[in-house]
Design a protein that fits this description.
Layout (H helix, E strand, L loop, with lengths): L24 E4 L20 E2 L7 H8 L2 H21 L5 E4 L4 E4 L5 H17 L9 E2 H20 L10 H9 L8 H5 L6 H10 L4
Parallel strand pairs: 2-5
Antiparallel strand pairs: 1-4, 3-4
Helix pairs in contact: 2-3, 4-5
Length: about 210
């Protein structure tokens, strides 16, 4: 069974279904506590958003002051701890992808195994919380996400992918603040019917998702 997690808070990272991954539950360091339902809306509590960075707690300001590379390094380290925790619980971790912060576990379409990996993942998340856990965002942080997604849109279009026109910056901010599904150019890539695993890897190399 394929599980796809789409964290919608900070990085806009999409774990997409790739051909050849059948009978596999795909987990990701960013996904378990911030998954979305089929309508694209978040199942997690609304993100706390303040107007200015001066209003943010120091830990949040420090996180958003990091470069994308520094954030990725910290998240990658957290993923390694999570994987180690799951291996200690007897799980065989497959297809570890530190670049895209993901890994796979074969649950053989067994409902009991699905339930157990979910419970074990949540426990490991609590033991080794993500460094971006419970952050307070500011409007400038959301604006930075919007601007980066415009860059990703241009990159994807350069690869021949038609991308939905973006909303205005204000609508993007409003959707984000109200915990609604908000624009991500990678959604159009996910909707492609002829996307192969090799092409997906090529695109994510050229147009990083976050």
């Amino acid at each position: 069974m394929e599980h796809n997690f789409i964290p919608v808070l900070l990085c806009g990272f999409l774990v997409l279904p790739i051909a050849g991954c059948t009978n596999t539950s795909t987990q990701g360091i960013l996904g378990s506590s911030e998954s979305v339902n089929e309508s694209g809306e978040s199942d997690s509590p609304a993100t706390v958003v303040v107007k200015t960075r001066d209003e943010q707690p120091e830990t949040s300001r420090q996180w958003f002051a990091l470069t994308r590379e520094e954030k990725h390094e910290k998240l990658s380290e957290a993923l390694k701890y999570q994987i180690s925790c799951l291996e200690d619980k007897g799980w065989k971790i497959e297809k570890v992808d530190l670049k895209n912060l993901g890994y796979s576990v074969n649950t053989q379409n067994d409902a009991a195994l699905e339930a157990r990996i979910s419970a074990d993942t949540n426990e490991c998340n609590k033991r080794f919380p993500r460094p971006d856990e419970n952050l307070v965002m500011s409007i400038p942080d959301i604006e930075d996400i919007y601007e980066y997604r415009l860059t990703v849109k241009a990159c994807l279009e350069n690869e021949g992918i038609k991308v939905t026109d973006p909303p205005t910056k204000q609508k993007f901010i409003d959707d984000f603040r109200n915990d609604r599904s908000y624009w991500n150019p990678y959604t159009d890539l996910m909707d492609m019917s002829n996307l192969t695993a090799s092409r997906f890897r090529e695109i994510t190399e050229k147009c990083p998702q976050w």
